[in-house]
Each structure stands twice: as structure tokens, then as C-alpha cells.
Amino acid sequence: MTGENEVSDPGDADGTDDRDGDDIDDTRSTTRETLAQRRGLDEPVYQPAEDSGLLAEAGREHARGVVVEVGTGSGWVASEVTGAAAVERVVGTDVNPHACRRARQRGVEAVRADLLDPLRNDTVDTLLFNPPYLPTTPETEWDDWQERALSGGDTGRAVIEPFLRDAPRVLAADGRALLLVSSLTGFADVVEHAVDCGFHAETVVEESYPYETLSVLLLEL
Amino acid sequence: MKESLLDIVCCPVDKSELELEDAERDEGEVVDGRLVCTECGEAYPVEDGIPNLLPPDMREEA
Q1: Dihedrals phi, psi of A94, to nearest 5 degrees
Q2: A110 touches chain B (CB under 8 A)
């Protein structure tokens, strides 16, 4: 996520206003206000930011075959990777129905899903994931789609860990995952968990920002 | 969704194959219908071209 949006495509170039639902109450915490300023609280779909740009960069270089972007949000990363030479097909999944519609409008084949649950064994050549990774406490959590897109529980790894545990099941032989990791989430802890799940981990993109360092891990079995 | 998506997706509950039923197509895409698990029989809706493959206990959200 990080500060100002530097990605060339702001994600809402079509100018449509789809603030359709997802009640937002007034009990705003400091964390929430900060995030709201950065992200735009009215938008129920995570918009491309620096992290998206880095994952797209890694994806264009390292994605191949059948690609599934988990938590595709607006579908920006998925559409960026679609043209890459080694890529056959790109599917974007999200738990958020607004995100699925956005991604589909962008031309991405969208599936509403919880992480890797509805993916068949040994079918995916490349997984891409920019996970919700901000460490949050129950007091600073709020119940809407933006929170689901950002919050990684008290460690920041509440979504990353189940993803890593299930990824070997869905990956084809020689499959790989590209996972965005923030220093806020504990880079070493994520790598350790990936190794525990049977992956070899290599950093393929890294960029430092005032509040965090963002890396993309290439994970191979 | 494209019908070939069935090569990639399965029932989120028991990971069995899905079968497309009552499909409405538009320009080669399935825009409406349902995906039914060949094992447990659970039906997952396809609406506006997007299959909802959340497990039944999560489906009510938004």
C-alpha cells in the first residue's frame, strides 16, 4: 500500500461511481483514518498502489502458463500480466463481489472465492498474491471490504499463512507463486513460513518507501 | 466465465469436479447458470458472468 499513488493507472479511469453499499460507521480509529486518507474510504475495492506496481513488474517477468491472481481487487495486476509472453491464461479471484465486478469490467476472468478454496489440485502454473498484510488489533479493525483488503490480523500474516499452506496443493509441477511482502508484516517470518510449507524463496523485486519496504518473493517448490 | 474455467476450479468444500447446469451464454461466455458439485451436489451460482465459489456458509456476505 504505502503513500501516494504512483501507479499510472488509478484504477477508476472509467469515472463510474459505484459506492454501492458497505455501510461505514463513524467509529473511526487512528489506523483507519490514516488508511482512509491513503486509500479513499468510499471505494469498496482496493485501488492499485505501489505494491500492485511491484507485483505486476514481477508478474510480467516471472509469471507463466495458467496464472491465478488471488485477491485481484480491481483486476489491475491481472490485466497487466495478461500480455506477458509466457502467460497462457489469467484468472482473478476475490472474496469481495465489488472487486469481482471491477475485475470483470477490466476484462479479467473473475471468480468469487476465498483464497485457494475452489482451485483444483495441480492446475495452476503461477499464483500471484498481494495479500492483506497490515497488522491490526481487534480494536482497530472495522467490518467492511476495505478492511478485508488491508488487514492481516494481529501479526499481519493471518491471510498469508493459510495461502502458503494451501498453495502447494493447487500448483502444478514446476509451479510458482509470486507473493508481495511488506516489512510491516515481518519479512523473515513470511520467508520462514514459506520454507516450512516446502517452498524455496527468492526475492525478485524490492523497493523501500518511508513507512515500509516492499518485496516480491518468488516461491518455488 | 469461460466454460474452460471448469479445468481450473472445483467444489470449495470437497474439491470434487463441478458440472455446468442451466447455462445461459453470451458471445461464448457463460453469463448465468450454476456449477453443481458432482460429489456433494452443492450448487454454486453464476451471475453476470461471475461464478460464486464461496463455500455455502460464506455466500450470504454482501
Answers
A1: -155, 150
A2: yes
Nearest residue of A to residue B1, measured between CA atoms: A109
Residue span of the structural domain in which A29 resides: 21-220
**φ, ψ (nearest 5 deg) of residue A147:** -60, -45
Domain count, chain A: 1
Whether residue A141 contacts residue A151, with contact meaning beta carbons closer than 8 Å, is answered with yes
Across the interface, do A101 and B11 touch by the CB < 8 Å criterion? no
Q: List all residues 6 or more positions away from A15 whose beta carbon is below 8 Å from its beta carbon.
A: none
Task: Quote the minimal CA–CA distance from A162 to chain B in Å.
Answer: 14
Q: What is the mean pLDDT of chain B?
A: 95
Considering the domain boundaries, does residue A16 fall inside one? no
Give yes or no for residue A22 having a pLDDT over 80.
no
Q: Is A148 exposed, middle or buried (0-12, 13-18, 19+ CB in 10 A)?
A: buried
Do the Cβ atoms of A114 and B12 come within 8 Å? Answer: yes
CATH code, domain carrying A177? 3.40.50.150
For residue A184, being part of any structural domain is answered with yes
Question: Is this structure's pTM higher than 0.95?
Answer: no
Q: Indicate whether this complex's ipTM tops 0.85.
A: yes
